Write the structure tokens for this entry.
Amino acid sequence: MPHICLRPSITAKALSRGHVPGVLREHTHVGKFPHDHTSGCVYDIEVEREQFIELVRNELDRLPEEFHSRIHNVAVLVEDVPPEQRQARPGRPRSLPPRTLLLGVYRGTPATQRSVFNLSSGPDTIVLYQKNIEAVCSSELEIREQVRHTVIHELGHYFGMDEDQLRDV
């Protein structure tokens, strides 16, 4: 079994505390906002937090064993929206182009850049943003598929893949 911790939420401040400068990497996954709304997000379909966490857990369990055996010390978190989106006007974070939403983020040192000389700074983290995933989906099946896609995308960053490589996956 991989060393994956699935927790409902922790603060972004707690995630960044204790990381060695220059070692921490952050990779994001964005989705297109399909609705034609300019003033805010409309969540057409919502699932309960526990149900969403169960979807994430199921997708992690469905990963092939060769991936499970190579994943170490990763916390998978679920939050409603990114911190910068809570601070920005309702709808979208300011740092993203119009009609896009941040669906997930990987924070940590990719496996390809790790060294025995690196100091441990706690677990790497993958954060899935539930409300944004719900906003780009129109059914529970689409939510399940988007959760899988986002989990695989962020794990790709954990394994050292960049955006161009992940587009080919």
Summary: The chain is about 35% helix and 20% strand.
